[in-house]
Amino acid sequence: MLSFLNPILLLGILGISIPIIIHLINKKKAVSHKFAAIDFLLETNKRILIKYKIRQRILLILRACLLLFLALSLAKPFIKNSGGSAEEKNIPTSNVIIIDDSFSMRYSDRHESFFLSAKTAAKQIVDALKKDDEAAVITCSSQEFQIPQELENDKKHLLNVIDRSQPSFMTTHIAHALDTAVEILATARTSVKRIFLLTDMTRNGWDPHWFKSGYEKLRRHVSRMHILDISEGKTLKNIAVTYVKPQITLSEKNLEALIKVTISNFSSVPVKDLPASIFINGKKLSQGFFNIEANASETKEFFITVEKGKDYYGWVEIPEDNLFVDNKRYFTINAPQTIDALLIDGDPKTNIYESETFYLEKALNPGREHISSIKPSICSVHEINNITFANFNIIFLCNVETLPPEKIHELEKFVQEGGSVVFTLGNKVNADYYNNALSSLLPHRLHSIRTFSSNSSLSEEQPLHLKATERVHPVVRILSETQINTLSTVKFYRIFYIDPNPLGSCKTIFSFSNDTPALIERQVGRGKSVLFTASIDRDWTDFPVKSFFLPIMQQLCRYVTGSISEEISQEILVKQVWRYPCPYDINTIEITNSEGTQTIVQPQFDDNEKYFEYKETDTPGIYAVTANGRLHPQFPAYFPVNIDTAESNLEKIDQKEITAFMGGTKLSMTAVRVSKESDVLLGETKKTFWGYLLFLTFCILFVESFVSRK
């Protein structure tokens, strides 16, 4: 529908009469001349008269159009794309305005970001609401964390809500926002219910599965859906750091961190010589160049030397583009300290492959390509008097029959003061001796040995298998999902049953398939005691030859010695929860976010597990962890929080797909530019074209001046 912003200026069209009057006044009659060659002159006058009349009529038309287009341009005409029927405009309406606040809305190819344009458009919608209309404003990056809004007709408050809204660092969840909008409109009493979605139309935000049933909600509760493409329908380009993975390689003196970096080019134009810089602890240490084909990714490796026992934070950075949020990705490196482990072999053999500690030693320090930060030393029971336990971090008693009384007292003191001991059992272990001599350290009293057979498939007593009792436990958490699922492949032919009553504060880490405890930990003073109710060699089980034996043993050492900070901290995405086990002697920790805000975190309990949980991961960056203002060996000094790069792909969704999603819901889609030349009204867009008319007026003026000189 054609309308005018200044209709009063249409009176200027009456100015068309001026050139007509001038044309009539200046109308000349042909002059007669008597001459001998009269026939020649008559023919000449006829030709001149025809040219004269044509020229005058052209000038008349040009001058009339000049005044007509000038009057029209001053009246500022515009075409209004209607978003509702005439009946809708004359009755009260209920409206939900959804502002896409995901991090892709930070994209800016002009003086302001898409998000600021969306806020401007939302304010124009609110300003255009009638007195009896009601509205609510919500966002769509995370419905889980936003405060529910109610319909209201207080424009001032609605504008304040829009003013206070800020772009997030999360991905788009349009389906969740539509769910919330439908829930709000379902309670409205008006018959006209509308949703306004202000978004950049990137495909990532649309969940096709939701619309399989969700379109029914829209048809029942929504009169009309208005989608405003704030990006003006443009094809968006973006380059992002999509993956960073550090890996530790040990050497005799230092550690080398291998940092794998992947950069993705989400555009149809290749990228050449793109610089990528590696920063460690705030200092630039390395740089490389990427050449990435259109709509492709490239991965490069960087090597950084770090020191043992130190924690590092860093990031990978590329030059800023239109979407700067994903041009930096963070990581941390927790360089492990050397752990000295003493392995007391209670059943040494001439053939080292049959010794009690053979597989354990190889797991703790595989050697060759897999150099470990754990340094095992082996001794027999006869050599134990020449060894001081305090020189080690952890003691393994592997099928040890007896210990001298003075060494038992030394071991008790060692654990009380922060050391750790691990008991693994076998044929030489006497339950009564252990229960009497080592009761201050054992998690449970030993009961009896139980043998299981697999010689016959008809046997009722098949071998036992292993399973994780607590998947969130640090020893279990190091395992991949595949490794956890294959724990059941371990076979145990003989185990020690234990008394069900614990001797202290105990926790079962692994259990057998019949729910009998397999690996139990106990807090003893400042240290830990661990009991494995089977043998650590292959006499009773095939556990030592399984692929997950090595990570479990190494992680067990790190955990009980307080060096659990996992060489590479697991990446946390924005708004994900950081969760970490709580040591017995820590009551609070402090977490400082990337903006310098510190939060005191109290421990929580879940199924007898004590842990810390931090939810305020709102912004990407490096988060620091301290206990009583200092670093704690059982916590990583830092952990990284990054964005979900699924939002970095700015591929647009086609309007035909959206129409199909809506399943019959009345829909209007507009690629809108929010500026002085464009207004956003309730589902309507005003596209002014007075500038084109003004340009045409100048063109006519130029042609008129040219014709009038002839």
TrEMBL record:
Signal peptide annotation: none
**What keywords sit in the KW lines?**
Membrane, Transmembrane, Transmembrane helix
**Which SUPFAM superfamilies is this protein grouped with?**
Class I glutamine amidotransferase-like (SSF52317), vWA-like (SSF53300)
Locate the transmembrane regions by residue number: 6-25, 58-79, 689-707
Give the matching Gene3D superfamilies.
Answer: 3.40.50.880, von Willebrand factor, type A domain
InterPro entries, per this entry?
Aerotolerance_reg_N, Class_I_gatase-like, Double_TM_dom, VWF_A, vWFA_dom_sf
- Protein origin, superkingdom: Bacteria
User: Boundaries of each VWFA domain copy?
Assistant: 92-307
Provide the protein name.
VWFA domain-containing protein
Organism this protein belongs to: Candidatus Brocadia sapporoensis
